[in-house]
Each structure stands twice: as structure tokens, then as C-alpha cells.
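ugh ok fine here u go
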Amino acid sequence: MKLQLRYFFLLLLFVESSCISYKHVPYFQDMSQRSDILDDITNYKTIIIQNNDILSITVTSLNPEASAPFSPPVTNQQTNTAYNPLSSGYLVDQKGNVQLPYIGDVKVAGLTTSEAKDLIRSKLDDFLKEPVVRVYINNFKIGVFGGVNSPGIFQVNNERITLAEALIMAGDLKLTAPRNNILLVREIDGKRKFVRFDLNSKNTFNSPYFYLRNNDLIYIEPGTTIEKRENFFSNIGIVTSLISIISVILIFTRK
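structure:
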């Protein structure tokens, strides 16, 4: 009987050590499961243009020939060269300016794209008839690396992306990666800021850093017991075989 109990506790210890950390895997564990929740979004701020951003600026007017200098260059889609945003955008220089046809330097750093659009349009009124201006950030990208399934640099096609969306783009966290120590690295006005997130908590949604900015880096710490837990989830048949073996041993020990 003592031998049987010994085998039983060995099996129990093996299973427990393989899945003991599952309780840390689900996100936002402190969120109520019994009712709908309605939160005001107060932490979103419109993206601000910064030095070294590359802006896509297009201008049209009632006189197509006059607005032609603003048309972006035509790229050769048959080439295998990597995409270069400089080939179809305007670089914001270290003084915060972009240089445009007709009007020269325009100070856009510190403005939203909507504000930059209105400023450029007002300056073009003397040169074009009813100009229509479109402005967006052409090189908006984020990086996600560490304990995710598909790390990489991701181009963002609009001006609004959240931490959660970035992790989805990177294939989500690995099961073994801790959820309570996500690191965001952001450059602001020549300084580097480090921010921590706990994805087990609903408070992540209310963080002023939940909405990402251009060139943000997100690092996920790898798990510390990778082989043990990943082998359990990917090779569940081993556990089944072990149970069968112990069952046979128990049968023979009874005889």
C-alpha cells in the first residue's frame, strides 16, 4: 500500500509541476465575469508629429498641373528592393520642419496630422485653387520581441494602435511567458522611458501608455521553465503513457 501511494504522489507531483503556473496565463483576471463593464476612454491622445518622422503629404486642387509637384513618386513594383518610406514621404528634420514645394519650410513637429494638414492648406491658398491636403505618418512602426510567437517590426497603417493589438500582431505571448512584467520602451524628447505592464490586471487598459506611439518597443520576458511546461502541453501523450505504466506497476504490486 505504501508503494502504491508513493507512485501516486510521484504522478501527482509531475502533473502539478507541469501545469502549476496556468493560473497566471489568463489575461485581465480581476475583471468581473458576471456583468457588462462600461469604461470611459480617457487615456487616448492623438499622435503628435516628431522629428525624424516621415510624412506622407498629398495635395490636390482644381488645377491638377499646379498641384502635381506634391504627387508622390511612382514606385516600380516589379523590383525586389525593400520598401523605403523616404521615397514617398517628407522627412521632418531636426528643426521640426518639412520642406514643401512653393512654400518651403513648414514647422510641423508638435502638431497632430490634422493640425499639420490645416496649416499646410492655409499656406497653399495663395498658390492653388481650393487645395485639398492629406497628411499621415508614413513610418509609424513598433517592435515586439522576447516571449512571443512571432516577434518583429510591424508597420502601423493608421494612427491608433494599442498594446493588446501589438501583441496580437506578434502572435500573442507564449504560454510560458509571464504576463505581469511586460516592458515598453519609448523615446520622448531625446529621453528613453521604461514602462511596465501587468496583463493579469484590467488596469492595463487605463494606462496612459496603453495606446502606442511611433517606434515603441515592447519586450516580453521569456518563461523560466520553458521545457517543462511546453513539453507538458505539446506531449500530453507522455503523461498518459506514464499513467498507464504506473497502473501496470500497481497491478503487479498487488499480487
